[in-house]
DNA sequence: CATGAATGAGTCTTCATTCAT
DNA sequence: GATGAATGAAGACTCATTCAT
């Protein structure tokens, strides 16, 4: 029903290329070609390449945070919400593999600038972890819990992406159980 | 007593700069300046920038693998070796933060090429995990175990680097225990 | 009572911007914004940017010439007409500072093309000077006289513009006297 | 004996082209071609085009000032020094026509930035004029005197350049006399 | 071995101009 | 007449690489 505008096409093409090859490795010309326009046209929609780079990070970082936050603050027992958060995390990754990879890459290359964005996905995880600790349901230090939660899920996603792990039905539940056991 | 040659200085300077700013973001001139020589001199030691980039990955990837492998194949019970491997992992990270970050970055930007290198650090971890599973000491799927092990340790290192976690005495043991519990 | 058309608005906006920042430094978009229309609309009125550039020079060059010529050929003694011409010169400058600056700038950047325009303001001055010489009222070579007349008045205007000289009542008369004395 | 370095060649070529066509109208490629090198080489000697633009103005503005100042502060009567200053002015113009035209052009396009440079040629003229006024030898306002002096000489130069006035022997003396008469 | 000037192929960005709506 | 997206040809600047000294 709704046509996707050039601006969004540029954003999507950029995300794809950035996540595949890197930011510096992707030229404005590459993006233009992917969209099917010429270089100059990009600049009617964005002031600079960096505006795309930053805009992309901000948008997906926020989107990811919101999905996590929604799960964290949803109804039900802590365990249920914990599982929902695992699902939300992996759901975001699998639905937006480019976006997740891009967020990761951005962290590597522009770590200083990440601080200017808020809230970040990890804030939602931290909220969950802290509640778990407060209620005695998570027994490890908050930083260890954060590392375990985020690190494991990130690697699960990367293994699936690399074809080393099949994305079968029930994956999220299984991983959720492993994490729950590890933390409680 | 052995003096560090220009070639090694170039490698070290490159590693530092690559891990700090990125590969594309580091110029041959930057490297030369860091070493205290001029651009042209670099080419006396390396045929191209990419030879440095690739050489660095190969060298540290192997070094990391060897340290992990040594721990995996060391003497003692499985549990002892497991703990030693955690220590070897974090030890490598903390002793060579640039190298670890660089290995990570390289994975993002040149994932295809990573396959040309062997053995990779993860192979050592996989060896450990598989033994654990065979002996019934690790109860989760090998891929989950790999993700948990590597992902968590990577994040622990990143949290320390970011100043969000103090690198206190006993960190390795604590994290080792958490991982052991998670996997067994 | 007659409304100023879009075409004239474009001309006026262009003159302002060209004289303030330079021709190359002013974009079609700048002009459009100043007028309150969009880029494309400019091309409804002018075939190209250069048509504006050239049109502006032709129009103001002619206008300037006419005002000078009118003074030169006015009634009265030579001295009276000389003074009137000084007044006409400075009058044009102060009433149309942008135009005068633009004429000057155009001379610098497009000196070759200036020759295609005729008559030029200097032709009127030359007419005055030659008459003065013929009547023995101007005693210096025609080229010196031209340089003195035009050069001095131009600089007077520029000093006023730069805030280094106040544009007080009687300025024209005083300057006229200085020039008269210098030439006779 | 001394070879002219690339840096100076670039400066000279830039001056020539800038004064002939304008600054914006001259590209780095034009300059490189004029020098006989490629674009990139320019940047080994200058950080940016603007560094050339500004450097050129600073250098010639200072050089011009110094030549004027030397004449103004030379030995002899005020009249003698006045004449020497006229000669110094025209001497600079005729020896460095490109430089003089460039200084003028820069004033038009970058008037704001001119203020950052000091001393400027006009400061030397002002020094002369003020002394003349103090001694009762110049009878017109300092600003009028400045306009007359600078404006006339500039136009004399431009007329010679345009081929409208021959640069014959004794030109400087004749013009000097006209100016002296005009001011005293 | 080292220097640093030079090359040349890009890279981002700008902008006059065109054109479908 | 007007809009504003798009084009395409530059233009300033960068940088890996080469090479004469």
Description:
The structure is a homotetramer of 184-residue chains. With 184 residues, chain A is an all-alpha fold. Chain A has helices spanning 6-21, 28-35, 39-45, 49-72, 78-95, 97-109, 111-114, 121-134, 142-161, 171-183. The first copy, chain A, has 2 domains: 1-46, Orthogonal Bundle (Arc Repressor Mutant, subunit A); 49-183, Tetracycline Repressor, domain 2, CATH 1.10.357.10. Chain A contains 10 helices and no strands. In chain A, helix 4 packs across helix 6 (97-109). The longest helix of chain A has 24 residues, at 49-72. The A-B interface holds A 21-22, 24-25, 101, 104-105, 108-109, 111, 140-141, 143-144, 146-148, 150-156, 158-159, 162, 164-165, 174-175, 178-179, 181-183 and B 21-22, 24-25, 101, 104-105, 108-109, 111, 140-141, 143-144, 146-148, 150-156, 158-159, 162, 164-165, 174-175, 178-179, 181-183. Chain A binds a DNA duplex (21 and 21 nucleotides) through residues 6, 27-29, 37-45, 48-49.
